[in-house]
Write a structure and sequence with these properties.
3-stranded mixed beta sheet; glycoprotein; disordered C terminus; 2 domains; 196 residues; alpha+beta; disordered N terminus
Amino acid sequence: MSQFPTGSSGSGGGGISDVTGSSISINSGSGSSSSSSSSGGESGSTNGFVWSPRQVVTKLGTVQGFIVRPPNGYEGVEVFLNMPYASPPEGSLRFMPPVSGSPWQGTRRSETPSPVCPQVLPNIRNESEALKVMPRGRLIYLRRLLPHLRNQSEDCLYLNVYVPAGGKPFMLLDDRSPKDQHDYLFTEIVAGVAEE
């Protein structure tokens, strides 16, 4: 899977599936979804998702994410994928502390996931053999996760950032928190990734 925002939802708009297998529809702020192509610095939809209307200036340059809206009507999430935070640990930088990344000019559109760091993946092709060394929940989780781990590289020092699209801060869960905070998309994705 080379592009994170892929697939389609039943309403004719774009859609994605996270590692939990949940489908997330993608909408613009106006409530409409589009799959038309956009070019240059225009705001709009490319590959079935909607670019965020804002651009965020970071230490290394300007980034623009995209908006996802869960099908259950909860607040949307602004997604920034593949944001570099250090130079690739290759050549003379291998096995050294991270070095700040190189700045870029223009706006970096953050819709493509970065490669994951190299790792040995367990053999899960033979279910009965795999279940001898791991619980069934882990096997199911790995089957969903495996397609996202195929693109591996030493150049893997990137972040995926998820921010509430409405500008509200992230919620901290404690004894005084409202009990429905677990329903926010950000929490669902984190909880889904931790599922076993």
